[in-house]
Every structure is written in structure tokens, then in C-alpha cells.
Amino acid sequence: MWTERRARLRTWFTREQSAPATTTPVNTEPGLGQHLIWTHVLLTLLVGSVLTLVSVWSVNQLEAHLQRIDMGMAVERVRGEFLAGQDPGRPNRFFHGAPDSEAFPDWLRGLDEGFHKLERDGRVWHVMADDLDGVRYLLLRDYTDYERDQSVSHWVAVFGLACSMVMAFVLGSLATRRVVRPLLRLANQVGTRGAQPPQTRLADDYPSNEIGQLAAAFDDTYNQLEQALQREQLFTADVGHELRTPLMVVLTSCELLLDDDGLRPEQQAQLQRIVASVNDMRQRIDIYLMLARGRDNTDRFPRTGLADMARKEVEEWIPRASRRGMLLRLVEDTAIVPSIDPPQFAAPLLHGVLSNLIRNALQHAGPGVQVTVRVSATHLSVADNGPGIDPAQQPALFMPFVRGATGGPHNMGIGLSLVQRICTHQGWRVSLHSAPGEGTRIDVDLVPACVSI
After folding, report:
1. Coil, strand, or helix at residue 377?
2. Domain with CATH 1.10.287 in the chain
3. Percent of the chain having pLDDT more than 70?
4. What whole-number distance in Å separates Cα of residue 417 and Cα of residue 440?
């Protein structure tokens, strides 16, 4: 179990210096800083645009209202002068007569009573029409220059909005850099945390804000995992060290007893079985320690071919299969790969893979089922014609402590997990093929990169 934790720890919190170079996919997603900057700019654009539009609209409405009042007062004043017999002095600007009569130019006929803004011949005119006793009085004012000034003021507002966006981008960049820089620093420290001394606290380098809280949470989680990993490493090392001495005593005692000529044949057979079991236990301890360390090579292990190991394993498991009413058989695909000078592999690792796959098939396939072990020079498979496995359960089968419903009380749920860890350590590829009612097959490809000939 702790090997998986160690692997996760290395994956998330360390950068392996000796790891082979791999192709890292290019991250095309924008970073947090870009998100913050563009959010700042877009919010400024939205708020600035709304405020600018509201301001321009309000000013225009206010000016139109004031102009309507001013033009109304001007019409009353000019009309009073005209009715008093005075010359209003506004040629082509002041008209009076029956509504829609020829007293008005063509383009001013048909207007409703009230204030109007008209454009003619490139000029902008404000027009006020007021009816009194069946007579329409109409006054014009040329507001072309005023409207041009208004247009300039509108462009000034747009320019101000653009400047505010530029300032928002600059200020957003500075503020984002101030926020993101500690995060990038923390991410770099997290990536190199494995090279730091145990129980190092990153939160001490940060203020007690959200980033400091994030660093503190990481420290607590990482240090707890580090302590758990250290405890499990020490436990594994202690177990491996302490078990070797009694195993060596048992092995030595058995060898001394085997030298006794007075033993009966059945006694010698029992002692030889004990010796074989002790040697197997020693190899298993070596395998577990190798997986725990993660980087040990297999040069010290004895070598054997896949077919030879399969014959030995099937022979050992046939009696148990028979007791369970099952048929266990071996198929050697010698036609695919010649059997002359087959590749050699670490015998304890092959034993661990094959024995756990066969045991798993015998435990879960059910009585009356046939289990077939098929091997070639670099490929093995263990298949049964049992009930199969639900697809929803298949992704978790190689996880530790996952037990099937038919495994029995002695099934600890670590057999397939051990197979997975051995294959991962050696670079072998293991795959599961199963469907309800169609049986189960587990394939292991011993890739050439891990083959020693």
C-alpha cells in the first residue's frame, strides 16, 4: 500500500532528476494572471461603457429639455414683438401663418407643434412650432456649430473610456502580478519540496493571507504524508531485516537435517518442501523491498524463461484446481516465437505475476470452470470461461484491497495490485478483458525493453 502512496508523493511533490525525458504537452490554456487581467479590463469596459452611455444620454436629454424651454421663451418673445408691430429682425428664421400653409417653406410643413431637431443641406436646425388662435408661429436656430462641439465631446468621452481601459490593463497587470507572483513562487517550492529537509514548512515564507493559508494547508498535508511514508518505510525495512534471521535459521536447520542419513523418504520430502518454501519467502521479501525502494534492479535475481516458469506454476496449482472441481491447463505458443534461446526474466517476478494471476482465477472463476494459461516467449495470459466481471467494477480491480464477492475470507485484495506493481516496475504491460457471461482474461506483455537475453 505504501508504495502507491510513495508513487503519488513523487508524482505530485517531487521532480525526479533521473527520470527519462518525455514530451510535455503544450499548455494552451490561459493562465490565472491572464484571466485576472482580462476580467479587470472587461469589467472596466462594461462599467465605463454603461457610465459613458448613461452620462451622454442624460446630458442630451437635459440639453434637449433646456433647449425646448429656451426656444419656447424665444418664440413667445418674438411673437410678442411681432404682434406689437415691431420688426422681429429674423429673416428666414421666423415664420407665421396658418399651419401647413405656403407661409412656411416646404421642409417645415407638416411638423407637429413643439420642439424639433432637423438636418438640411449639411446644417443642423432647432425648430420650435407654437400655435396661438389658429396661427402657427415657427422659429429656427442654426445649431450646426453646437452639434459639432457636442460630437467632439462625445469622442472625448470615447477617448476617455479607451484611456481608462488602458489604465485598467496596466493597473490590472500590476495587481495581478502582485497576486500571482507568490502563487508561482509557491508552485515552484511545491515542485521542489522533495529536495527539502523533512518537516520543512513553506508557510513561514508567506503572510497570513489566503496564499499563506494555502501554503499552510499544503505543509500539513505533505508533512503528514511524509511521516506516514517514513513510518511505512521503516516498517518494511524492519520486517525485511528481522525476518531474514529466523528464515536463515530455519533454512540452515533443514539443510542440516537433510544431511542425516537416518531420515525416511517422506521426511526428506517434507524437509525439502520447507526449504523450498523458505527460499520462496526470501525471494518474496526481496521483491517487496525492491518495490518499496522503487529503483532497485533485478540483476541479483535468478533468471528463467517464461515457458519454464509457467510449467512449474501450473504443475503446482493443478492439485488445488482439482480440489475445487476446476480444470487448469497450459498452452505454449511455441509456433509464434521459437523456443530456442528464449528471453530470460527475473524468476521471482515471473513467479509473483503468474502465481497471483492463477490464484485470482481459481478464487473467482467458480467450480467447473476451465482456466487456461497461455504463454509465448514474451507474452502470457490467464483466461477463464467463468461468469466474467461487471464493467463498472473493472477499473478498480488492480487497486489494493479491492476484493471480489467470491474470493473467500482469505482474499486480502492485494494479488492483482502486486501484479500491477511488478509490471509497472519492470515496464511490462498488463491489461484486463472481461464481460459478464464471457469469462475473464488478463494479458501481460513483457516488452523487449525489459528483456535480458
Report:
1. coil
2. 210-293
3. 84
4. 17
Strand order in the sheet with 135-142: 94-97, 135-142, 123-132, 114-120
> The C-alpha cell of 335 is what?
509456433
Beta bridge partners of 82: none
C-alpha to C-alpha distance for 7 and 10, rounded to whole angstroms: 5
pLDDT in tens, 406-438: 555 455 567 888 888 888 888 899 999 988 888
**CB 214, CB 220: distance < 8 Å:** no
CATH class of 210-293: mainly alpha
Cell of 85: 408691430
Backbone angles phi, psi at 222, to 5 degrees: -65, -45
β-pairing, 327-332 with 370-375? parallel
62 has pLDDT over 70? yes
* Residue 421 φ/ψ, nearest 5 degrees: -70, -40
Instruction: Give burial (CB, 10 Å; 0-12/13-18/19+) of 417.
Output: buried
Q: Write the single-letter amino acid at 150.
A: Q
Nearest CA to 356 among 415, 427, 400, 305?
Answer: 415
Residues of CATH 3.30.565.10 domain(s) within the chain?
303-450
Query: What's the CATH number for 303-450?
Result: 3.30.565.10
pTM for the whole structure: 0.50
Cβ atoms of residues 107 and 118 within 8 Å? yes
Q: At what angle do helices 2-13 and 265-293 cross, to 10 degrees?
A: 20
